[in-house]
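Q: I have 136 residues here and want to know how they pack in 3D. Can you give me a structure?
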Amino acid sequence: MKNKNELTINISAIYLVSLSAITIAICLVLIGAAIFAMHIPPKTPGKLPPNPVLGLPLLLWSIWCFVTGVGVLKRRSWARYSLLIISAFAAVTSLPLIIISLKVPIFFAILFVTLIVIPVFFIAFFKRKAIKEIFK
């Protein structure tokens, strides 16, 4: 049973690190593009250029997730708590997607439900006593 738990922990950490690394890269590109666009005069008078600060919260969130994923790979106790906080926040903020999923094509409905199921799985899995013991 321990090997199965270890494998699930590793897969969870790799998922978190991979997804957050991709999001960090996207944020950096978007922030860079916004900074670049600020120096180009708008074609429409009165139109404001994109604000690079708007991407900062997502960038900070992604960095937190990346660091947490690395901590989970290293079996740090703080990382388990951090993952529980991240998962709870992600699950709660994804709840409106349940309502939206009733009105969209099936592909998007499956995607939206997945965005809720994964954090709920993380919460259930990482709260187990056997998993707590691994992170001591």
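Q: Anything worth noting?
A: The chain has a mean pLDDT of 87. The helical segments are 2-38, 56-73, 77-94, 96-101, 106-126, 129-134.
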